[in-house]
Specification:
With 429 residues, the chain is α/β, with parallel strands linked by helices. The protein folds into two domains: 233 residues, Glycogen Phosphorylase B (Rossmann fold, 3-Layer(aba) Sandwich); 181 residues, Rossmann fold (3-Layer(aba) Sandwich). It contains 16 helices and 14 strands. An eight-stranded mixed β-sheet has the order 3-4-2-1-5-6-7-8, sandwiched between helices. Helix 2 packs across helix 16 and helix 3 runs parallel beside helix 4. The chain is globular, with a radius of gyration of 22 Å. InterPro entries: Glyco_trans_1, Glyco_trans_4-like_N, Glycosyltransferase_grp1. It holds the Pfam family Glyco_trans_4_4.
């Protein structure tokens, strides 16, 4: 790309700020229009930070998740600058890959190279860098950009890497994971502050780096976007006319979700037990799930293709119970689907333990069953399927938690306080 073209992109959709507002750059590999929890969380927090007095810019990759192909309308070889809502967004090219460990590693490092190459040319120098991990390797770009821009960075940990990757069987313990652990530790120590979306994540960081400032910043939800009033005929038709109650899973159909547990449950139901399952989404496990449903004639499970983000509230509002599944215990991992279900007044059947189960228990908005606990999963399902009053009570209590503890406005205000506390004393230094 020519210098002239880079100069044009650098000024495209630029901010008109007079410099009185602090400027923050969100460094993340994943951002809308991609679907997913990090994408929604970061963009919604960014919008609220704008309302709280910040100039916000995002440095991210060309959109490609989860298909592994750059979205239509973007040149896969060139950077791109546009607006995502009110957030000026700089997107850099990268090597894309949907599956395969070595290919994903190549993808991660190609984004690091793109961010280091184009970030200083296309982004406006921030006062503070907010970095989203995973992938952990983004820390290489964070350290480089923080030094180049002479600004501190706050490192946000959504999953503990490489620990989570080891738990999920993506990698085996060895030299590579020891190197990743050293990178993790050095990044934590270099950060001005560390935020994490769960108590378990922050507890892990504090044990290893007690000298670094830490703060739990949970995921959350905008309760005004969700609720029973958002149901519509198109959503009901998509979920199907068959008798309910409908247990809905809406999200990534991935390996970590342990979705075969839902198929096992559906297959075990006798004819007298009401209820059916609708899985909404896409991901690496979808093809195998579809083949199993067909092969074993599991007629109570329907898979619906991934839907636009704006349609999710209507789909949740048209269901009766949210079923949220993890295939294993991943320290610190709390599915974001929990908060959207709460805001939708949906009772939750959670197949997970650890911190997600504690969140459900504290809000008293559903029932949690440990993964692979087949002895308790079936009676728990029947309890929710057959008791409409219990579903109503759990739904109301979940909505109350979404309006208070997990309200995105409340969470953004907490993040704003953390970020302002670590701003340099002189932003012009």
């Amino acid at each position: 790309m020519s210098t002239t073209e880079l100069s044009r992109l650098a000024t495209e959709t630029g901010s008109s700020s007079d410099g009185s507002r602090p400027r923050i750059c969100i460094l993340t590999q994943y951002f809308p229009p991609e679907m997913g929890a990090p994408q929604a969380r970061l963009s919604e927090l960014g919008e609220r930070l704008i309302d709280l007095g910040w100039d916000v810019e995002a440095l991210t990759a060309l959109p490609n998740y989860p298909t592994g192909k750059v979205f239509e309308g973007f040149d896969p070889r060139q950077p791109h600058v546009h607006q995502v809502g009110r957030i000026r967004t700089v997107r850099v090219p990268l090597y894309t890959a949907k599956q395969g460990f070595s290919k994903r590693i190549r993808c991660y490092f190609s984004f690091v190279r793109g961010a280091k190459r184009f970030g200083p040319k296309l982004c406006q120098r921030p006062d503070l860098l907010f970095v989203e991990s995973p992938p952990l390797f983004i820390s290489y770009a964070a350290k480089y950009l923080a030094k180049r821009w002479k600004c501190p960075f706050v490192f946000n940990v959504s999953d503990l890497w490489p620990e989570s990757a080891i738990r999920m069987g993506v990698v085996k313990p060895g030299l590579a994971t020891k190197m990743a652990e050293r990178l993790e530790l050095s990044t934590y120590r270099r950060a001005t502050a560390i935020t994490g979306q769960s108590d378990e994540i922050i507890a892990s960081v504090r044990v290893r780096c007690p000298e670094v400032r830490t703060q739990v910043i949970t995921n959350g939800v905008d309760p005004s976007r969700f609720g029973p009033e958002h149901a519509d005929d198109d959503a009901r038709q998509l979920l199907g006319p068959e008798p309910g109650p409908i247990f809905i899973f809406a999200g990534l159909l991935g390996l970590a979700q342990g979705l075969n547990q839902i198929l096992d449950l559906a297959k075990s139901l006798d004819a007298s037990t009401p209820g059916r399952f609708v899985l909404v989404g896409d991901g690496p496990a979808r093809e195998d799930l579809e083949k199993r449903i067909e092969r074993e004639s599991i007629d109570r499970v329907k898979i619906v293709p991934a839907q636009p983000r704006e349609r999710i509230p209507a789909l949740l509002a048209s269901a009766d119970v949210a079923i949220i599944s993890l295939g294993m215990t991943i320290p610190g991992a709390v599915p974001s689907k929990i908060y959207e279900a709460m805001a939708s007044s949906l009772p939750i059947l959670l197949i997970a333990d650890g911190e997600p189960a504690k969140r459900i228990k504290n809000a008293n908005c559903g029932i949690a069953v440990s993964p692979s606990d087949t002895q308790n999963l079936l009676p728990t399902f029947k309890k929710l399927a057959c008791d409409a009053e219990l579903r109503r009570q759990y739904g109301e209590q979940g909505r109350a938690a979404a309006e208070t503890t997990y309200n995105r406005d409340h969470i953004a205000a907490m993040l704003d306080r953390v970020l302002r506390d670590v701003l340099p004393a002189s932003r012009d230094a």
